[in-house]
């Protein structure tokens, strides 16, 4: 069988380890030159395929590709663009086939979250729906940790480590100032419907270093009176309190506290600004001075404090995606399968994309404390291995030494432009 080229792209919000998955895909593909010719990366995700804006990764050195493993964010650019249904937007799929044919692309690797899994699922159906032979495998990624089937999602462990560290350090700061100044610190973290990242803030407190932390989860309807009572008790007992609030916290009617009335390209509510809302509530109702922060891009770009477990898993799913494709598997996603908590052990599994696309995995009730403001020991056992280990990038002149690829474009073969 003649070697065919592969398409790889990154989609959705990037992470500190998504490039480790890219490294896994490209290095594994290079190890099979008899089956895979070149790996073309889509510039800015699936848009790169639709607009024939491809990057020839074969022109990058082995050292540059290897350096992706310790470089954060999306090396090839990402996008928030979801393919519509084949029945209503057939032209999109015909365009993909035109581009794939022009560049002899027979493998499709899409690196992203739930919406990206949906895109990959639709591409995987090109063979049966429109007669174009292609093997499509989804490479999991999301800081939100909300993909189903897989035990955890590459990208999450490093965000969890960053948030747990930040909450711990900020709590030490507030404790120092609480006698005469700030008594409340609020940090807003990502998580539209699932509170996994917020839960990681609970790791800052431990048996040997207990800290007063209140967590607001999207899974628990916001109860103002109960929340204020919890914070008031913490301040009276400890002199201060740290609050971790998920951007997706909702009231009892299901409305986001931070809903700006806007939506992103996937149609999701554009959230942000819940931290000052919660901080002001503490000042107005309890009279405490506060400081607040929004982790925002910092939490998902912090490669300098990435979890070694997360880096290893991100690379492993990239490698496994290529191996699955070469074995003839289509419309699947490599998963992380937990074998044990202590000692922590995991292996690669596989899931059908139809069971992954557009399905959100929320925090189970058993992971949230009875009062709704903390994590349980079961949650701690789940989270701790995921933030385990350090995998520092190389440093130069006191700063992380990250790679910037040349990203040389592939010559276009199609005259017609495609507008999205």
Structure description:
With about 425 residues, the protein is of the alpha/beta class. It has 2 domains: about 5-140 and about 305-340 and about 350-355 and about 390-400, 3-Layer(aba) Sandwich (Rossmann fold), CATH 3.40.50.450; about 155-305 and about 370-385, Phosphofructokinase domain (Rossmann fold, 3-Layer(aba) Sandwich), CATH 3.40.50. Helices cover about 35% and strands about 15% of the residues. The chain is built from 13 helices and 13 strands. The strands form 4 sheets. It has a 5-stranded mixed beta sheet with strand order 3-2-1-4-5, with helices on both faces. Strands 7-8-6-9 form a 4-stranded parallel beta sheet, sandwiched between helices. A two-stranded antiparallel ribbon has the order 10-11. The two termini are about 35 Å apart. The mean pLDDT is about 95.
